[in-house]
Structure formats: structure tokens, C-alpha cells
Amino acid sequence: MNDRGLIVIGSGPAGVAAAAAFREYCDDVPVRMLTADVDRPYFRPPLSKEFLRGETEDVSRDGAEWCADHGVELLTGTRVDAIEVEQRVVVAAGARYPYTELILACGASPTPPPVPGGDLAHILRSQRDAIQLRDAARRADSAVVIGAGFIGCEAAASLAMQGLSVTLVAPDEFPQQKRLGAETGQRLAALVEKSGTRFVGDTRVQEITGDSVVLDDGVSVHADLIVAATGVAPNSAIAETGGLEVKHSRIVVDAGMQTFWHGVFAAGDVALGVNTTARRPIAIEHWQDATDQGAVAGRRAAGADAAWSQVPGFWTTIGDETLKYHAWGDGYDRSRLVDHGSGCTVWYEADEAVVGVLTHNADDDYDLGERLIRDRKPAPVPMQ
Ligand SMILES: Cc1cc2nc3c(=O)[nH]c(=O)nc-3n(C[C@H](O)[C@H](O)[C@H](O)COP(=O)(O)OP(=O)(O)OC[C@H]3O[C@@H](n4cnc5c(N)ncnc54)[C@H](O)[C@@H]3O)c2cc1C
């Protein structure tokens, strides 16, 4: 046995998939997973949904024995402080861990709102964050959620479904208007409001105090609970100081998730990887795509061939309603919303080809959209 072996930094979906894929090809090489998280690997998506609503307590993944079964040594509560790629060493809390191959799957961390008192708001990324938020929600009657991305919309709806009086504030007139268009934003606002949440758009937060949020029109909204869902920043600092190429705060990798440094890979929210179908680098923050990229990195680290080729996709559940979205996520020229009565499909095109599809109760279109994006075909409806 080589006492170096593979080191995976991070125990999210990219890290877990990387370790699992590596093990498919190499069963006699040590694998260590170093993670800052104090918990064993778990599913993040339920944290803003069923877990926050108290409908499930168990978000752990793969069973407690997975690491032992796969011969993966898991070191929780172990934050990596530095990587030394020339020496092939990872440094954490003064200890030095040598490696042969390294996979950085260290994800992203929430960015609090850059306003006075911004750090007073709850954030939501880890299971510990979710436990704190859920416990605080049980003692609260009212909440303000800042930021109407998918996590903000989901958390607001979950809190409202728990009986809290919830206000969701966002700078766009409608949730995610800049990213998905006004019509889609209106649909999102309707779903959020259906859960009982009050949506206040076109509004910026100026200050957070212990029990209120001051808006840019001077109005102060009282809240027992304040949640910031104001975006994330990739955890790329150790890569940058370690000499790897970082662009837009993400670690630059090829379609095999390999950095320019041989034997060093990156995958998931921290990576900027080339997608072979898109034929360009794609920045993505979804569970399944982190899993896909992690699997590619793990196979490559084991010496097998693999490339990231999947069309990105994810589901979001706001209250009782699920939306599904496939897209490259780097812009579109025009969009068309088709209403189906009980839901809708939004087609996004660039250069006469579908680059995104968002569906609500329209699974066939979700599947069709994936194929059209992959094949660079136009939408099946006239675009406005
Ligand atoms: C509440 C919530 C709900 C979500 N819901 C959905 C959803 O419904 N659908 C969807 O597609 N996506 C969803 N996402 C997004 C999805 O969870 C992320 O895209 C995905 O987790 C990214 O995976 P990752 O492995 O790249 O990073 P992460 O899951 O962020 O994992 C990174 C890991 O690295 C560790 N780490 C970071 N820095 C260090 C360091 N220096 N040393 C050691 N370890 C380190 C962290 O502790 C963590 O274990 C949700 C996210 C959240 C927070």
C-alpha cells in the first residue's frame, strides 16, 4: 500500500462522488477525505425544505458505514489551511498529509449581506446552520428572508408553512427577474406568496439590527428571525494561494476536472470546468452537477478516462410546488413562457438554439429541453 494515495478536500456531493468513483478503479490505494464539516456526509437540498419544516430529521447520506465500506478515511472538523502542490502535501491544523492525487471539492460558503449588522442574520449552508435556523424558527413568530434566489424562496416558503409571518425581500422587482426574466419572476413570486410569504421586491436592505431589517425606503420590518440568502462565494482561497489558476473565484479545470497541475483536480461549486457538450467553461451550483463533476474527477484521478458532458439541471421545491430547470446558465437572447393551466414551461434561446428550459408540472418539456439544449436545436414553440 502506498501511504500517500488520494486526498479529497470536502464531503459534499462532489467530494463523495469523487471518492466513490476513484474506488471503482482503485481498491488498494488509501483514500482520505478531509472536511471542515463537523458532520458526516449528508444531503443539502432538504435543509431549506423538509428539514427546515421539521418533516425529517435524517439527511445523512449513504449510511454511516459508507466510508468504512469503501475504505475511505473520513476526517471531519478538519479544515485544510494550505495545499503545497510541489511537495504534494495538504496542511490542516498543523498536520501535513501527503498525497499522490488531490481533488479539491470544497464548495462555496454563504456571503452575508454587505450592510451594517449583516453578520447578525442566519445563513444556511451546512446541517449545523440548518439546525440553528430550525431551532430559532421554533421560537419565532416572524421572519425576514433577504434574497430571493432559490434557497431564499425555499426557506421563506418553509418558514411560512411553519406558521411564521414571513417577508421575503429582494432587489429585483420579482424573484430572479434578471436571471430568468420578468414572467418567470412573477410565477416565482406567486409560488412564494401561495405559501403565505409576503414578497417585497425592488428593495435593498440598508441595515440589520437584532430584531429588524431596515429597507432602503427607510421602512423598518420587525422580525424575530432574519435569514440571509444573499449568495455564495467559492472556497477557492487555498487553491489560489497554492498557485492554482483561479478565475471569477473558481478553480480553472479542463473537461476532465484537472487543473494545470498534474494530479490536482477540482469539482463542484468551487470549480470552473469545461463542459464538452457546451464546448466552453460553465460555472454551476447544483447538486447533481457537483456529483457528475466529482465522479469525473475521481475517475481521472484513478487513471481512467472521463469528461464532464451533462447538461446542467436541478429541481427546486417552493412550498408544495416543484420547478425543474436545465440550462447552461450563462445567458439567453429571448424567452417564451407557455402556460399549461396547472403549470408552465419557459423556453430560453440564444442564437436560435435552446439554452435553457424551466418547467412547472411539465416533465415532458423538461426532458425535451435537455435534448434540445444538448443538440443545439430551437424551441418547439415560436419565440416572441
Ligand atoms: C439549503 C440548500 C439547499 C439546496 N438545494 C438544492 C436543490 O434543491 N437542488 C440543487 O441542485 N442544489 C441545491 N443546493 C446547492 C447544492 O447543495 C450545491 O450546489 C452542492 O452542495 C455543491 O456541492 P460541492 O460538493 O461542490 O460543495 P459543498 O456541498 O458546499 O461541499 C463542500 C465541502 O467542502 C468542505 N470545505 C470547504 N472548505 C474546506 C477546507 N478549507 N478544508 C476542508 N473542507 C472544506 C465543506 O465543509 C463541505 O463539506 C442547495 C444548497 C443549499 C445550501
TrEMBL record:
Keyword terms: FAD, Flavoprotein, Oxidoreductase
GO cellular component, as recorded: cytoplasm
Cofactor: FAD
Listed GO MF terms: oxidoreductase activity, acting on NAD(P)H
Signal peptide: none
Domain FAD/NAD(P)-binding stretches: 6-294
Stated name of the protein: FAD-dependent oxidoreductase
UniProt organism field: Gordonia aquimaris
